[in-house]
Amino acid sequence: MDFDLSDDQRDAAAGARAFFTGSVSTAAARAALEGTAAPAPGREALADIGFLGITVPESAGGAGGSVLDLAVVAEQAGAVLAAPSLVTAARAAVLLESAPDLAAQLADGSTAIAVLDGPVTGSAPSIDAADATLFLGLDGGTLVAGEGVVVPGRPLDATRGLASVRLTTRRVLAEDAGERWARARAVGAVVLAAEDLGAADRAVQLGVAYAKEREAFGRLIGSYQAVKHMLVDAWVGVEQLRSLVWWAAWAADAAPADAAPAELPLAAAAAKAYAAEALERAAETLVQVHGGIGFTWEHDAHLYWRRAKVDRLLLGDAGEHHDTVARLAVAGALG
Amino acid sequence: MDFDDTPDEAAYRARVRATLEEHDAELLHVRPGEPTDARLREAELRATQRVLADAGLVGVTWPREHGGQGGTLVQQAIVAQELARARVPTLVNHIGIGMCGPTVIAHGSDDQRSRYLTRLLRADDVWCQLFSEPASGSDLAALRTSAVRDGEDWVVNGQKVWTTLAHVADLGILLTRTDPTRPKHAGLTMFVVDMHAPGVTVRPLRQMTGGADFNEVFFDDVRIPDGERLGEPGEGWRVALTTLMNERVAIGGAGSDIGQSAEALAAHARDRLPALGADQQALARQAVGRALVAALASRYTGYRRFTALSKGGVPGPEASAGKLGGTAAARLVSDAGVRLLGDEAVLGATADGDETWQRAQAYVPGIAIAGGTDQVLRNILGERVLGLPPEPRTDKTAPFSR
User: Domain residues for B202?
Assistant: First the structure.
């Protein structure tokens, strides 16, 4: 057994960290929320560095990489609240397996693509739909692509680009696509959990840093067990989430070839359920450790809190995924 | 990243499996989840370990010069998995193998190593660890059991508690205070003690589960030859840290389940869910799913730590996170297991006498205390991993006797 990243994946993570910290700041997330600037780094920049095509086949202009390759990059994107989400790239790459022309446009960023949750006659708020021009959806059991009328609501976290969409044109990409749709949603859940991992890790780091510099009652607040234990619990959550994200990404890559088709649904549901609560705890801890300053608009803490409150409900909440895990385990998915 | 055996690991696993099949009739077997009481099955448990030791399956990672196999952590894990698969219970001398033996290897004299280690691996001697006392649990360095030099011997008086296996043990490692005028950590000395020596009294300690897995041990003028000292006088704390580091890896440090396994809960849910009403089923599935996610998160985090160790890493304070996560998972797993019992959840056993889940539930408070309380582990992680400042302390530098 070897449950660790390869040297190449570590290098990729380091490169992604350098790219995201150099091109995105939390100021961008705040500006997007205030409506004064677009979220960073934006679709073109992500396409230029190749992140939108990591799991797109080389024949369609992508890198032909694994979901795990994408997940280690997504973690770094999550740490700085980057937009658009790599969840969209991951999910669309699966859905466009039989449409290399569109996959190529996904990878090179020439078309803004979003994947719709819920009915195509009026979708649920869907990631990155607000700025997209081409939408993928499931109509009955048929996978369709089309243009649509976009209705964004008032954003809670502007970096997610959420909007409801009603399709106005439809091109059929595949009949009987329910299975592919479910796999794409599971892969999307894994990558969402990876972005949440990065955000939660960063939130804990910010909380720890503040606890080492803020004094109260004559000493650093991080020396008080009440504060220390809260941060440790959040950190343990991050470490455990990292294990589930890696396992789920590995399962996503192993699923098509190996004889364990149930492992991706189980692992993806476990990772997404855990991510929802781990990021929420990390973000709430970040605010609480900062005290009053953490409750201000000018502080970054609420930007992570917003991401947590939104992401926990996207692609299924913890309750839905706990139910899925239980059903699959009862059916024998643990082996 | 690969969860499967390498060719070398697969070959080793096949050899282990063949060895276990060859000796199957000589080994004790238990049902899944069946407790093995060393009080009742001591002879069979010792015989089982002896067979395994002679077959080269005990002390896998120990150096060859000390009777071990000089193997890897991965091989150790493979042996553990295959023993579980063959339903062989935990080795009777697990405290000796995991904690006492490594301490003797690190700090014992050549004479002690040659007299003790091979016999330990064969369960010719069963070992226990005599650390905790009624007034020193989390604050272990506050212990009061005294050892006073008298000629070539030391004379020991005091009481130890929560001592696993003391009732069947032949030997123990004993942490004592030899110099109360020095600060608490500096006045300690470690010994190997003969549990059959005059003045050693072992009494079972009944815990809240109703069972008696632990003991109290009383020392009344027990004489220990100076040659049974482990390390120098006053060096006992450093010696004890060797034991404790090995303990943290042994408990939940490398992906082993604490309490009932995820698989056991899934099988239990398969049996019991259909008997619940529709609303209760939905709620029970939520509880089961949450518990399984926690158990898997803890297990895979252990696998990551295990990979790091097998690549040459040393057990560090991060292992405390494994026990913390494993305890949290055990709490959720046992709770979901009990809830699946429906109306029978308020009774001590089901109508057919099964108390698996009630017992698991009653063990959880002990799990959260033994081998480092949740709170002590959070302090360790906060200070040594996250780098947060310690709480101010007044007890570290003052003479213990003050």
Answer: 127-239
